[in-house]
Amino acid sequence: MQIYLDYSATTPPRPEAIAAMQAVFTQQWGNPSSLHEWGQRAATVVEQARMQVAGLLNARAESIIFTSGGTEADNLAIMGVTRSYTKPQHLIISSVEHSAVAEPARLLEQWGWDVTRLPVDAKGMVNPLDLQAALRPDTVLVSVVYGQSEVGTLQPIETLAKIAHSHGVLFHTDAVQVAGRLPIDVQQLPVDLLSVSSHKIYGPQGAGALYIRPGVELVPLLWGGGQELRLRSGTQAVPAIAGFGIAAELAAQEMPTETPRLIALRDHLFHQLADTPSLVPTGDRASRLPHHVSFCVHNNNEKISGKSIVRQMNLAGIAISAGSACHSGKVTPSPVLLAMGYQESAALGAIRLTLGKHTTQADIDWTAMVLKQVLQRLIPVQLVVSR
Question: Which has the closest alpha carbon to 360: 268, 224, 232, 229?
């Protein structure tokens, strides 16, 4: 039995997205900037996809800028705002950001910027009062992740954005894990910039988008032919964008039924593993991504890492993750869990199981059984060796 439970890392492209890409490769492969018929067919594909992605967020189509993925969208938001200033200013992020936000912030510090990293509680939640206290006259941008990819916690984005706006400060959120799983309405959600990714919603890898509220001005990362309203030069990846558009449209249609189904499966998996003392749930159970289950392995031996559990589960035909996929190749403690107050040994033992449209209750039941067996094999042996 093969069971894939790593949907936060990537999702399988849905057949409709693949069909849309194949149509571009065979019939609409022109350069969207060309004025002839071949180019205009491709341009029509791009603009149709722009409307589809905008529909997922209840945005205006002209507010959507296509990028190569969520990382580029985050970078365009952070650097696009900050590079418009000739002198270093003040930036606020949370201490549990994805590296696509945390690393640009670290670079800005090297350039003289002052960066405040908001603390989080044991559930990974930012306290709005901490943001209120951190804002300064020279603060130009706040960026707080919407749904944390490692521990699943949903931040109070509406409240945080309103606090930033009350001080005249722009607000960005990385919504890569949220878009397509929970409703987002940028007409109601007071964010200025919002990042999304195609391959998290059953579209192809290599496409993403940044929502930019009308009136917000950014400095481009890439300079050239002036595509994407001069904010992202370079010939658009029409096949990937076409697949992204279809995936976004279908995600919006399916969300009313798929999200409750995922929540039920998520809670069932937590329940199935509740009697396993070596597993300590991480993140906020109430304010949580609908598809996300995560734990730290509680033991007295640092040799039991999340990676070792991932390997054992893989041998059993089950794909899970050791924390965030972007950190899974490194044997280092999760900085997110360290920020949440976990000890280094616990942060090394983080695992994540994320569910998707192909996950069934039978998959959940089998996975829970196998994971318990893996833990029974690993932990007693390691504890004996350590004495």
Answer: 268
